[in-house]
Amino acid sequence: MTTVTTLSGNTTIIGKANSDTSDIIALGGVEIVSGVTTSALISGATRIYGSGITNTVYAGGSQTVESGGIASGTSVLLGGTELVLANGTTVQAVISGTDLWICD
Q1: What whole-number distance in Å separates Cα of residue 7 and Cα of residue 92?
Q2: Are 63 and 82 in contact (CB under 8 A)?
Q3: Could you give the angle at the alpha carbon of 84 between the alpha carbons of 79 and 89, nearest 5°?
Q4: Which residue, among 75, 98, 99, has the nearest Cα to 88 in the 3D structure?
Q5: pLDDT single digits (tens) 46-74
């Protein structure tokens, strides 16, 4: 496992066989997850195709759970957003911000 800080204007990609923990995604940064991210601190944007575990989405940040992706134990703080697309899954989320579901 590694820890990555993604700054504004940058993108980090976590491949299928990889996992990161305690990543920091700054406002304007993007993290694309096909593997596993754990305890990420999200002020920018994260797209979950694999698994996101106990991530925290801050004001201005967003976590999108793509089709086939799984988010578990996400905390969405006031001003943050979690978007769950059709066939995406989120469980045990704590929502103070916005939780959106898009279904077919």
Answers
A1: 28
A2: yes
A3: 125
A4: 99
A5: 999 999 999 999 999 999 999 999 999 99
From residue 63, give the alpha-carbon distance in Å to each of 83, 91, 98: 6, 14, 11
Say which amino acid occupies 46: T
Q: Return the structure tokens found at 10.
A: 């940058």
Alpha carbons 68 and 59: distance in angstroms, whole number: 26
∠ CA 21-55-70, rounded to 5°: 100
Mean pLDDT for back-to-back runs of 10 residues, the chain (104 residues):
84 89 95 96 97 97 96 95 93 86 69
